[in-house]
Structures
1.
Amino acid sequence: MKEGWLRRRILWYLRRDHVNRMKQARTGECARCGRCCHGCPAFKKSEKTCRVYSIRPNICRNFPLTPDDIEDMGTCGFSFEDLALSGGNPSE
Ligand code: SF4
Ligand code: SF4
């Protein structure tokens, strides 16, 4: 199971208000490294592409949900710069 898979589902389905606040603090853009897709059956490793990109789930479109997701990946094109605005991580 990809790091943080369960945490993301709990946040996405039960803490959407927090996810939406965090989204306001998210900056940057996807560097298409594919790290967050490893282990997904729709991920085409050789090309680092998603086989269902145009219809990918909203939880994929909104990755990373929190700074924990970036920490899990090691690096990501996105970052969270203004945690005062978002209220920080729910786990803190
Ligand atoms: S880990 Fe970040 S940069 Fe890499 S594919 Fe996922 S969202 Fe894009
Ligand atoms: S974007 Fe596509 S390959 Fe990546 S996790 Fe979502 S469905 Fe899987």
2.
Amino acid sequence: MKGFRFSSGFGPRLKISEKDRYDFHLGMDLVPLYDDKVYAVYNGTVYAVYLEGDPKNPYPNGGNVVVLKHTLPTPFSLYGKNWTAVYSVYMHLSELSLSPRDVGKKVVKGDVIGKSGSSGTTLLNHLHFETRVATTCSAPYQQRHPQKRCSAIFGAFRNPHVNPLYFLDYLDTNSYALNISSCGSDACFSVSGSKREWDFDCFTAFMCNGEQKRVCYKGFEGIDQLNVDNNDLGWVVIEPYRIAKQSNKWAVRWRVKSPLSAIRAVAVSDINGFSLNETLSSC
Ligand SMILES: [Zn+2]
């Protein structure tokens, strides 16, 4: 897509349309600004084309879906494995430039694969874009199909989704802000960043008792992958922030179920390794 705005990034998301329900968004949403055309992000091959209503469509909410397979110039490390290919998944398309007969054909970066739309379960014209190291074997799929031995691929009850920004060019401005406060008897950390840059990856709390607690999206460290929409991770609650629609920022609040005095430091980091550290207490 050429002219677009991001309406949701990869990670925790507040669904205002669903009475502020929280979910964990496994892709990015791009809303077209003046052109609905959807382009292949990389050279690759057509892996699958699913039409809305196809009972074999493994993405029943995705409407018309295209999946491309790309060989990576350098292997991508996830779950202790080096992945040499990644799949890009395009959902909610209104028009397809490819058909199921095109499976196996080559695509070149920039080829039009269709137009964004609102097929599947969405009302808004947008492209839901995912990148995955596998097209199946998500944690819920593994639970439904225990006989498929998916765990041999990348481990039991893990998700193949990766933040698309790992594979795309974008302006990395490191424009994060971290706000620290007490919230009742807990400690609250609000992280915000630019809506042009959804590359947030990890939140780490260094506790006074020596423990190091982490939540990371790449590989979903610290997150129950069978239930990624659960915002209560035991020691921390993820609270996606409601911010003004016209704001050019996203924000997420991490409520650590410990007082500020029990936390020596916190760090937030992005997928490129940029890290913002804040020392809180000398314990
Ligand atoms: Zn989406």
3.
Amino acid sequence: MHTEFIISLNDLRFVSIECPHCGTRVTLDMSREDFSVGGRNVFGPEACAGCRKAFDSTVARSVDALHRVYKDLPEAVGKCITFSGRRDPDSARS
Ligand SMILES: [Zn+2]
């Protein structure tokens, strides 16, 4: 038995990043603006807030790209796009 879910792109708002080293999870609100760091606008963190180890460089770049799409997406388009998935109750993913 599994649970199926459908979510509109407009309903997505938070993105979480889990540190592969210590398991600290940081949740970012995609409705917020970028942060200016060293004259560069960034959204995704480059290092873990818990253990301070650097994430793989693709993590911040990917979260930044996702954030740009989220901020640029017209609401009418977001209503038309949905994601669907299944959750197996025995799965380790939560
Ligand atoms: Zn960490």
